[in-house]
Amino acid sequence: MTSASSVPPAPSLRIALYDPGFAADPHPAYERMRASYGALVPVELAPGIPATLVIGYLAARRILNDPHRFPADPRAWQQQVPVSCPVRPMMEWRPNALRSSGAAHARYRAANTAGIDAVDQHELRALVEKIASSAIGDFLAVGRTDLLTQYAWPIAFRVLSGLLGCPDGIGQRIADGMARIFDATDADRGNHILGQAVAELVALRRQRPADDITSRLLAHPAHLDDEEMAHQLVTLYGAGIEPLTNLITNTQLKILTDEDFCAALHAGQSTVRDALDTVLYTDPPLANYCITYPPHPTDVDGVLLPAHQPVVISMAACNNDPELTQGPGGIAGNRAHLAWSIGPHTCPARSHAYLIAETAISHLLDALPEMDLAVPAAELRWRPGPFHRALEALPVIFPTAH
């Protein structure tokens, strides 16, 4: 492992997380990183954007539980990063809980938690079932579909828009902007589209409040102004559409390609919730994130991390750390994975995400019990990007009713 007194790696020695080859098969890359660097790996998130990737489970837990040494505020970092940087919209400061620390973080998180916790779980399940039935009805007679674009994405998008009280027209633009940001291909344009659309949603709900998260945020004692409101909605959409779409899709891929797991599921020996937790361990939809920015050079396990340089937690690599998976009991039955993060920035909508994904997958399995991949698994393509674990498509075939 690199010593604390060593010179930071040259750019050529950093591992490019934006490389399509990394996206196609990241787990062998994590193994090579571990062999070469240990728990802390020098990477590039985009050309010329250095960071440290944390791939050790115990190191990650210490960092996530230490907001004093590892705050989430990126303002000092972004002063030296051009606006055109493709990953900047996913990382830059926003007045929200995800990018704040201390009293500001507590204020934003309290408002968000109150808005989310007021969602009725029974109504949420009914909404997911209604949207899932409609989506299945659109392709049931065809005998084939792309589960990502025609099932998982419409569910995530329509459910989230329903929870936020967002009309379809505004929601479509929000989803378009968010997809551009996650792909880090046209992120600056995506940021602009996103900002305009969420501002319209805030204005709409100020004029016409309803029983939705946006209206509850507006009514919260935190007294969020229009700019703050817009950024709360950006966070909710960012955490809701892309990762939830990919959680549903990646879990369905696991069920379609793991014969033993599929057999246990159909025999009642395992559940859809087990499938979700397996994927959250092995291939979480947000593979590398939970970004912090140490304000001072900080020693972690003998490695000196530079001030104001991103420290990125690899949930995918940490969950598969041999120190965790090869311990007593290994991975089985253990929900200690970091896919929801831990510490002050733990996902406040975890139970809602579980409910949406579990209901969507269960509904699909009930409706199409004889579904198969339409192409060999090796031909499936993964979208490049340093943060997500996301398929381009999940084509399937199934018998139609006669």
What's this entry about, in short?
This protein has helices at 20-24, 26-37, 57-64, 75-78, 88-91, 102-117, 121-139, 147-164, 168-183, 187-207, 213-219, 226-257, 259-266, 272-282, 315-319, 322-325, 350-367, and strands at 15-16, 40-46, 49-54, 144-146, 288-292, 298-300, 303-305, 311-314, 372-373, 395-397. By secondary structure, the chain is α+β, with helices and mostly antiparallel strands.
Fold topology:
Elements: E1 15-16, H1 20-24, H2 26-37, E2 40-46, E3 49-54, H3 57-64, H4 75-78, H5 88-91, H6 102-117, H7 121-139, E4 144-146, H8 147-164, H9 168-183, H10 187-207, H11 213-219, H12 226-257, H13 259-266, H14 272-282, E5 288-292, E6 298-300, E7 303-305, E8 311-314, H15 315-319, H16 322-325, H17 350-367, E9 372-373, E10 395-397
